[in-house]
Amino acid sequence: MHSPRGAHAVRAAIQRSQASLAQLSRERGINPKTVAKWRKRATVEDMKTGPSKPRSTVLTEAEEAMVVAFRRHTLLPLDDCLYALQPSIPHLTRSALHRCLQRHGISRLPDVEGEKPKRQKFKRYPIHWPTGDAARRVLPHPLPSRGLPANHERGHRWDADR
What we know:
By secondary structure, the chain is an all-alpha fold. Among the domains are: 7-40, no CATH class; 61-103. Helices cover 39% and strands 0% of the residues. It is built from 7 helices and no strands. It is extended and about 90 Å long. The two termini are 67 Å apart.
């Protein structure tokens, strides 16, 4: 999340000012607690939000260590890891596994050395309108009926029965 435009300048001015908290809060139209907060900070940047040590709400530390060790040892894709680990960790979900691997920086598998399949471009065809026989081609069967009566534009569909 970013700060509003000019917020850094306002915070720096608050930190440099010798005025009282009440006077600054009146001048700037902000809460005195906000002035006090910015006065005691060493920087004008926003602090990081969220927990200081992110941890799983689903997995215990032991289960998380097992997941990380398994991934580092096997280098299996996400879904394969999930299916291999679910018998031993029944409450493990795909999203919990992915978040765990992201926290530990191993959500992306390393590039494998060796031959990679050569990528080829699709064959390019000219764009054209059908002409001649293709334009006059008749379908081998009639288009399916939508089940609407012939007078469907006039009113209710049961009006034809009356």
